[in-house]
Write a structure and sequence with these properties.
This protein is mainly alpha-helical and about 110 residues long. It has helices spanning about 5, 10-15, 35-50, 60-75, 90-105. It has one domain. Helix 2 (about 10-15) runs antiparallel to helix 3, helix 3 packs parallel to helix 4 (about 60-75) and helix 4 (about 60-75) packs across helix 5 (about 90-105). Keywords: ATP-binding, Hydrolase, Nucleotide-binding.
Length: about 110
């Protein structure tokens, strides 16, 4: 992998979510192409410092698709990522399930 590719967050998201990537190797993970595409778009948006609106159905894997690139970017920049949700239920899901998964893999 070239140095340019290593620094490209979107490229790394494609690898992370691939069958052979960190998440792909995690126990019980089911590959979701839409999730990988969303993570790549989120990463591109972070790198470009722009905004993104995504609509996707239940079961797409939206939470990990935005948490993983946000965590990588925060780690690399030495900053914190802030995630805001509309419902308490989603906050509980993120902190009880999804954030611990991301912390263990990033």
């Amino acid at each position: 992998m070239s140095a340019e590719a290593q620094g490209n967050l979107a490229f790394r998201m494609g690898e992370f979510f691939s069958d052979g990537g960190k998440l792909g190797k995690a126990k019980g993970y089911e590959s979701r192409p839409g999730q990988a595409r969303m993570a790549e778009r989120v990463a591109e948006t972070i790198e470009d410092r722009k905004h993104l609106v995504v609509e996707a159905g239940t079961g797409t894997g939206k939470s990990l698709a935005y948490l993983v690139p946000a965590a990588y970017a925060a780690q690399e920049l030495g900053k914190k990522a802030i995630i805001s949700t509309y419902t308490i239920h989603l906050q509980e899901q993120l902190f009880g399930k999804d954030v611990p998964i991301v912390q263990s893999l990033v």
